[in-house]
Amino acid sequence: MTESAYRIQGATGEWEVVIGLEVHAQVVSKSKLFSGAATAFGAEPNAQVSLVDAAMPGMLPVPNKECIRQAVRTGLAIDAQINKWSRFDRKNYFYADLPQGYQISQLYHPLVGEGHIDISLDDKNPDAEVKRIGIERIHVEQDAGKLMHDQHPTMSYVDLNRSGVALMEIVSRPDMRSPAEAGAYLRKLRAILRYVGSCDGNMEEGSMRADVNVSVRKPGAEFGTRTETKNVNSVRFVMQAIEHEASRQVDVLESGGKVVQETRLFDPDTGTTRSMRSKEDAHDYRYFPDPDLLPLELDDAFVEACRASLPELPDAKRKRYETALGLTPYVAGVLTAEVETARWFEALLAETATKQGKGEEAVAKQAANWLTSELFGALNRLGRSLEDSPVSPAQAAELLALVADGTISGTIAKQVFEKMLESGDGAAAIVERDGLKQESDTGAIEAVVAKVLADNADKVEQYKAGKEALFGFFVGQTMKAMQGKANPQVVNELLKKQLG
Amino acid sequence: MTDLTDLGIADIRNGVAAGTFTAVEVAEAFNAAVAAAQPALNAFIVTTPDAALDAARRVDAARAAGQALGKMAGVPIGMKDLFATKGVQTTAASKILAGFTPEYESTVSQNLWNAGAGMLGKLNLDQFAMGSSNETSAFGNVISPWRRPNDTAPLAPGGSSGGSSAAIAARLCPAATGTDTGGSIRQPAAFTGIAGIKPTYGRCSRWGVVAFASSLDQAGPMARSVQDCAIMLEAMAGFDPKDSTSLDLPVPEWEAGLNPSMAGKRVGIPREYRLDGMDPDVAKSWDDGIAWLKDAGAEIVEVSLPHTKYALPTYYIIAPAEASSNLARYDGVRYGLRDLPDGAGLQDMYAATRAAGFGPEVKRRIMIGTYVLSAGFYDAYYTQAQKVRALIARDFELAFQHCDVILAPTAPTAAFALGEKSDDPLAMYLNDVFSVPASLAGLPAMSVPAGLDRQGLPLGLQVIGQAFDEQGVLNAGLALEQRAGFTAKPAKWW
């Protein structure tokens, strides 16, 4: 790492933070992990509960192949070992959100073994500072239901819609050393999941949440005792939780105390963590292989079909944008960070190349720059996302083609784009209707140039006397006189000629 | 006219098909027998005479319309109250499920209704199928119809399918479903002089059957003849995609395949089943069985099942471990008993509900199971037990290299009196000593009546077969049945 390492300055010196994340990612699937019940978000409470989910007597789980497929694809996307023999275990505990009295999970033999994710620590130059974060395993398990304690004065309400929904638990190695690394890891993981399509990554709806393991140590010392902060549901909160938890632990240690291994909760309102239960009260989950289920055995054909179904992943795509399309690492990084951006960009690129009759590599920079500056700027102002962008890639390509063939200037293009956003009309129609077509006729521009020079004879004198900065003034006056529609290149040429 | 309640499945099916009597007449006869015996034997938890009549009417109508009739057409049966029956209370003989009426029908019971059977009622059992005497039922003991001579002491009908065995022996039904986790079909069959087969694990779907120990639970038929068992097993069995452990194999035509000749077959006699101090009547009946199979043409070979002595301890780790988890769902939240003391929180409600709802034997097994799965003990108990289980299964594999079926006693004694062993769980558990190994190995095993002991009580012989070879088991059972000529039935005292 070129940057100086993240350190907490304590009274006794510097402390290093050690972070591991356990991310729970809800698997994209129409039905639950072991029952046919639906999984759509936002249904009426208890509308998506099968007899299996409600743990009625005699009900049995049957694995949903699609959930297994998505977990295997995710494993392949992080270069992980796929375990062709895995098994489901029961994690036993009593709680009202867990109708069976146990969660079906995978403790002893997870579906996915060792893998890794490379994170970039410098957005401007994604290849410069790459750190590899190890992933220990991905296992598949059931989600629990939801309890609502604020609906009734003395009772709690139970909603089992989420009960039995498939989760992937993605367990990292304790390889992260700063909140920024943890944030980068989460963002990268989320991007990969969304590229793969195995999780929608929607942290607000709870389809991705993280348990944050934090410990501190003097740089180079043995690992300290860690705490686990449960169910943190945004990248920002994860980073806040780490910052708070690490300095809390430093305070504890420096005041002569010991960090207690415990489960903690994050409070988003205060940005702090608080104790939930200590190791002494920890449940004994009595894990054992679920006797209702046979071991999960995958054949090579299944794994290969999963592999073949993977899309181009963010790192590969970024490298291709750099090498094949000639984009800068920064722009390539921005375009590939989210699968929607890359998808939109590639649609724009294809349309633009077709409309201009050129290869994609010839129009890539124009398309990329317009997308990252003009479109992103507009979406930001409008508070909209790419998915509900008011212009389509085809409409944008039409605008870019008008610039490329000289019909309008870059400046006019900005105006046309504004009008497109307002009216929803096409670029060519707006240019035609509002007479924005660029004037490239030398004769017409020549006349205006002559008039500008005649009207500003004093400045012409000054220019000729060496005040060359006035050239810009003449360009501006000419453009103004022509309402910006003059082809700037022609204006430049003619001015230079007439000024001698 | 013959007493219809003396008929078995095949006779009823054939008689209904031939028009000798109607299905409704059969149902009425059994309904009457059930009602008359209920106060004395307590074999049923609920009776469903209307369900039996409705099914019978459908069969009679189908026959009148010239439609093809099912394998069990016109046969009214008892349904062990471990099978979920839509609209009919299903309790597993536990207070914790009192009043629970499922909205669904178990696969096995549905298969039987589809085959034309009707339901006489839900049969009593040991609570959650945990027991060998029916004394753990929350709905009172089943009383065996059998008595010792000149002795009115109530005897155990065996367990856990004790309602099934008592009802069949007392001619309250021609057949009934049972479930067998460590012997719960075979031991009660042996105690009451009837036949019963536990098929290969996975033959009958567990969907809709209240779970005791998932890796061991297996449903099977109980009836008075080997042929009846074959007919009923055909109707019950079959692949069920709703049960992940269900066998995806076609159901053989076991009835058509019945063949009592043992010519060319080798029968294994496991050395380790000869226990010191073995009941001489049981030993004699075993010797009789050996002689009968030899007479049927079999070659008798001695085989060794060296890990037999570990079977009981292994079973009493694995079964309670699974049960402790399977029974966690009875928590008072969604169905069944809910005990919510004033001001109680969630944990208090769990504790109160489960304390009030589960009987002592169920609690004992939940505690054993919780203990063997707990951190620090898991490897010493559960992991070790799984290893031994694999060795026991291997014992059988090796033995079956030398024989086609294995012959053994079903239980170490004839029926005991109620109360005789209920204070001594270990003595009770020893009842399963001959039945548990086949359960652990998932093998088909059957008990057929072998005769009476010196007290006049029935004894059973057990045939254990190779996985999927129910036919071999049934055929050996048939050979035994033909030679045993068991016709004894309990004198009617109820």
From TrEMBL, chain A:
<dbReference type="GO" id="GO:0050567">
    <property type="term" value="F:glutaminyl-tRNA synthase (glutamine-hydrolyzing) activity"/>
</dbReference>
<dbReference type="InterPro" id="IPR014746">
    <property type="entry name" value="Gln_synth/guanido_kin_cat_dom"/>
</dbReference>
<dbReference type="InterPro" id="IPR006075">
    <property type="entry name" value="Asn/Gln-tRNA_Trfase_suB/E_cat"/>
</dbReference>
<dbReference type="InterPro" id="IPR017959">
    <property type="entry name" value="Asn/Gln-tRNA_amidoTrfase_suB/E"/>
</dbReference>
<dbReference type="Pfam" id="PF02637">
    <property type="entry name" value="GatB_Yqey"/>
</dbReference>
<feature type="domain" description="Asn/Gln amidotransferase">
    <location>
        <begin position="343"/>
        <end position="499"/>
    </location>
</feature>
<keyword id="KW-0547">Nucleotide-binding</keyword>
<dbReference type="InterPro" id="IPR018027">
    <property type="entry name" value="Asn/Gln_amidotransferase"/>
</dbReference>
<dbReference type="GO" id="GO:0006412">
    <property type="term" value="P:translation"/>
</dbReference>
<dbReference type="GO" id="GO:0070681">
    <property type="term" value="P:glutaminyl-tRNAGln biosynthesis via transamidation"/>
</dbReference>
<dbReference type="GO" id="GO:0005524">
    <property type="term" value="F:ATP binding"/>
</dbReference>
<comment type="subunit">
    <text>Heterotrimer of A, B and C subunits.</text>
</comment>
<dbReference type="InterPro" id="IPR017958">
    <property type="entry name" value="Gln-tRNA_amidoTrfase_suB_CS"/>
</dbReference>
<protein>
    <recommendedName>
        <fullName>Aspartyl/glutamyl-tRNA(Asn/Gln) amidotransferase subunit B</fullName>
        <ecNumber>6.3.5.-</ecNumber>
    </recommendedName>
</protein>
<dbReference type="InterPro" id="IPR003789">
    <property type="entry name" value="Asn/Gln_tRNA_amidoTrase-B-like"/>
</dbReference>
<keyword id="KW-0067">ATP-binding</keyword>
<dbReference type="Pfam" id="PF02934">
    <property type="entry name" value="GatB_N"/>
</dbReference>
<comment type="similarity">
    <text>Belongs to the GatB/GatE family. GatB subfamily.</text>
</comment>
<dbReference type="GO" id="GO:0016740">
    <property type="term" value="F:transferase activity"/>
</dbReference>
<dbReference type="InterPro" id="IPR023168">
    <property type="entry name" value="GatB_Yqey_C_2"/>
</dbReference>
<dbReference type="InterPro" id="IPR004413">
    <property type="entry name" value="GatB"/>
</dbReference>
<keyword id="KW-0648">Protein biosynthesis</keyword>
From TrEMBL, chain B:
<protein>
    <recommendedName>
        <fullName>Glutamyl-tRNA(Gln) amidotransferase subunit A</fullName>
        <ecNumber>6.3.5.7</ecNumber>
    </recommendedName>
</protein>
<dbReference type="GO" id="GO:0030956">
    <property type="term" value="C:glutamyl-tRNA(Gln) amidotransferase complex"/>
</dbReference>
<feature type="active site" description="Acyl-ester intermediate">
    <location>
        <position position="184"/>
    </location>
</feature>
<keyword id="KW-0067">ATP-binding</keyword>
<dbReference type="InterPro" id="IPR004412">
    <property type="entry name" value="GatA"/>
</dbReference>
<feature type="active site" description="Charge relay system">
    <location>
        <position position="160"/>
    </location>
</feature>
<keyword id="KW-0436">Ligase</keyword>
<comment type="similarity">
    <text>Belongs to the amidase family. GatA subfamily.</text>
</comment>
<feature type="active site" description="Charge relay system">
    <location>
        <position position="80"/>
    </location>
</feature>
<dbReference type="InterPro" id="IPR020556">
    <property type="entry name" value="Amidase_CS"/>
</dbReference>
<keyword id="KW-0547">Nucleotide-binding</keyword>
<dbReference type="GO" id="GO:0050567">
    <property type="term" value="F:glutaminyl-tRNA synthase (glutamine-hydrolyzing) activity"/>
</dbReference>
<keyword id="KW-0808">Transferase</keyword>
<comment type="subunit">
    <text>Heterotrimer of A, B and C subunits.</text>
</comment>
<dbReference type="GO" id="GO:0016740">
    <property type="term" value="F:transferase activity"/>
</dbReference>
<keyword id="KW-0648">Protein biosynthesis</keyword>
<dbReference type="InterPro" id="IPR023631">
    <property type="entry name" value="Amidase_dom"/>
</dbReference>
<dbReference type="GO" id="GO:0005524">
    <property type="term" value="F:ATP binding"/>
</dbReference>
<dbReference type="Pfam" id="PF01425">
    <property type="entry name" value="Amidase"/>
</dbReference>
<dbReference type="InterPro" id="IPR000120">
    <property type="entry name" value="Amidase"/>
</dbReference>
<dbReference type="GO" id="GO:0006412">
    <property type="term" value="P:translation"/>
</dbReference>
<feature type="domain" description="Amidase">
    <location>
        <begin position="25"/>
        <end position="474"/>
    </location>
</feature>
